Each structure stands twice: as C-alpha cells, then as structure tokens.
C-alpha cells in the first residue's frame, strides 16, 4: 500500500471529477488539474495539466539542510511515479527478489496521482476522459513484457482511418488491404492519394514489416517530410490529406520537425499490430503498474516533492540525501537514486551535484504541447465504426486535427446509451484560443457540424462539453535539439548529456529513449536493472541477474 499515506486506495480508482469545472493522438496525458483561462461566463474552462515540479523553481539553494534532523533509510529511492519510474521500481524489485535478497525501495511522487502523463479522469456521470487523447499500441515490445494485456480488457481500433476532404460530404477511407484483404477495392477507389501513391505504400509497408526495429533505427535519419517525399515518393496530395494530419496528431509537431526513424518505428507498430483502448481508460495502465510495484514490496509515497538532492561529495560519494517537503518535511538517505522525471527536472537535480553544475547550462530539449476537447451525448455516434477520423483539410487552419469516439472503441468510456467524443487540438490552435474556451468550443462544434451534417443540430445544441484539457508537456521533441527522444534501446542510465553520472545516480524517462510509452518503459527497465545490480553489488557491465 502506498502512502500520502494511502488510506483509500485512491490511485487504483479512476479519478472522479465534477462535470462543471474546469497523444492529441499522443502516447500520454498529464494530470494536474489547475484551470487556466476559465471565462467568467463559461461553465468549463481550459484545464492546464501542468504538474508540480519535483524541485522548486529557485532550487531552494539557500534552504538550510534538515538532513541532520533525522533521515529515513532506503536502499533505493526513485524520484518520479510516472510510467518510467514505476517500470524501474518493478524491474529493480523483481531482480532483487529473484536473488533472494531484501532491499527497501521507496518511490517518491510530487503529485497526488501516479502515472505522470498516462492518466484519466472519470466524471460523476460515468464518462472516462483520458487526459489528452491517447491510444495503446499493442505491438510495443517492452510494454508487452511488463503489462498483462488481458487484465486491461483492450478493444481494438480498425486499421486505417477516415478522412474529411474538402467538397465531399462522405468521409473518405484509408484502409490496410494487407491486414484486411476485403478492403482492397475500397483502397483502390479511395480519393485519398493517386493510384501511384497507393502502389508506393507497398514498399514502405514491406520495409517496416520485414526490418527489425534495430535496423529501422540504423537507417539514415532525416525529417519525416523529406523521407515521405524524397525517399518514398508520395505526392503532396497524399501527404497533406492523410499522412500530415495522422503523423502530426501522433508526434504533435510539423512533419519537417519529426524524425524519419521514429516515423518508420511507429509505422511498423501500426502495421504489425493494433491500436487499442483499455476498458477503464489509459489510467488502467498506470493502475496495473502501481499494483505490481506494491505487490513486490515497493513503498510509494505521493504528494512528496523533492526540494534538494545532496551527496557526501565527489564522484565516489557513499550517501545520497534526498530532502522533500510535502505536508511535512522528510529526508531520505540512500546509496542509489533513480531520477525518473522529465529531462528538465533531471537536469536540475543532477546539475546541483558537485561537479555537474554545467548540466544546468545546457538548453532544455523542446517539449511539445497539445489540447483535447471532450463532448458527451446520448444516442448514436456519427461514426459507426471504431476508427480515427482525420482532418484532411489542413490548409483551412481550422482547430480540429482528429476526432475519435472512444466509446465506439471500448464501451467502458461511456455509460450505456451514451457516447463520448474526443477532439484533438494541436498546439498552434490551442495558442490561438488561449483563455477563450467558449470560442474554442464553438469553433470545434461548427467544424464537426460541417463534417457530420446529419448530426449538425445535435452537435451545436445537445452535445455536452465535458472538459477541455491543455497538456503543455505532452512529449519531448524527437528531432533536433540537444537531446532528441529518438534513441532505440534507451540511453545508458548512468550517463546523462554525455557525462558519466556520480556513483549511485541513475536516470530514466521517455527523454532517455523514444517519445513513446515503449520508450518510457524501456528506459525504466534499463535503469531498474542497473540500480538493482548496484544494490546487489553486481558490476553493471557484463553482469547477469538471476532469471
């Protein structure tokens, strides 16, 4: 059982929120629910999901140490209760248990909720709102190893997508005839792209299906726009009407700022398997990781932000002191700490250690943001299939990137007789409508009314706005910048920005691997393995833990 001190098992339940208060087809969603820009006449404002920092903004450099007042001892302390931190905790605990040893592992989370960007809220009337539209990619190799898919009660999307095109009432369909041969006629007749474009898709699909993940990441890297046009030869029409809205909804940035390697990797994941949604929302992923960590003896403490990390000095420090201030001041003493925060916070924590101050001078990797608008309504959805709907009219500068009806994918997202609509708004449009939630709501309704003409009246007058989320740090940038999140296999947990870390320090997070759920797990597993070896006094290099 984890603490704040957890008396009601609150993390194992989907959070309940009222409906009157205020990736993105992305991989994650964040969860701190401070309202930003709520209009006085609006029933629902834009909910900024910015989380608490693990450290204070001024680093509390002048705060006297209270370590001498009594510290709690732990063999391993993990700072950060997101997917990566939980994966590190699980991996370390399993490795230590298999070696028939007992070590005290403590995980500290600054916020009330665990899971970081993988979370959901449940309204009083029974709708599940993922904090930022997200899908569960079943073929992620590291995720498969750590999660019980059956327990998640996954339901799959249909392959492909539907696309709204200019001048057409009916939605166009993009299918995958290799996975569903019955769709071959629809694929050939689809107005999305030319016949030549459709022929050129085959070499791309064969390349990602026949290549290993390692081989795809060893290909020469360029931006995705260049790869699509120059390497694969797709037309501007096919790129702009399908690939652009699809990929920008995933990576939250223009094609020219996306990694071609990440495109190949994600395209392989979609080609090899399905996208899905868990019955209880994406928070089901977090809940399963939390329960697994606790069952292995990990002590989890929420609402415990770290204010400072100190060492005994030098690279061979024996003791690491972690000072925290939640409702009370607490201090933890350990020989091993895993920093499982985002890259910006990790730089602050490690940059405060003697000899590593220069880390704070390195520019932060850009963080990508996104918005998500949720509507609930009674009756049938405009789209009868569990499929994503894309805005193929990107030149019109309308706010909607994509639309999904999560309750059509997994009925657990809405009460019986009702449906839920999720609308992804990319950062440029969210900036345009900042502090104007009513105008954003009306713009989205008008756009959806034009897409689904038979439902226009209901969309404008009867659909209930449940919430508008703004996720300012939905994922780290995966192309360019000082530390792009496009590294397969996860970077070494003992090296950060090219500097070997002090003894006892380890780092993990999606910023250390790829900006995906798989990357977060992969990096956490690597750090968990390394910190377990350190705790067991097994050399990290060329060591094998007990199977």
Automatic annotation (TrEMBL):
Domain spans labelled Amine oxidase: 84-531
Gene3D superfamilies: FAD/NAD(P)-binding domain (3.50.50.60)
Keywords per UniProt: FAD, Flavoprotein, Oxidoreductase
Protein name: Amine oxidase
Pfam hit, one: Amino_oxidase
Family membership noted in the UniProt record: Belongs to the flavin monoamine oxidase family.
Organism of derivation: Fragilariopsis cylindrus CCMP1102
Protein EC: 1.4.3.-
Keyword Iron-sulfur belongs to the record: no
UniProt GO MF annotations: oxidoreductase activity
UniProt keyword RNA-binding, yes or no: no
Domain of life: Eukaryota
Binding sites annotated in the UniProt record for FAD: 84, 109-110
Enzyme class: oxidoreductase
Required co-factors: FAD
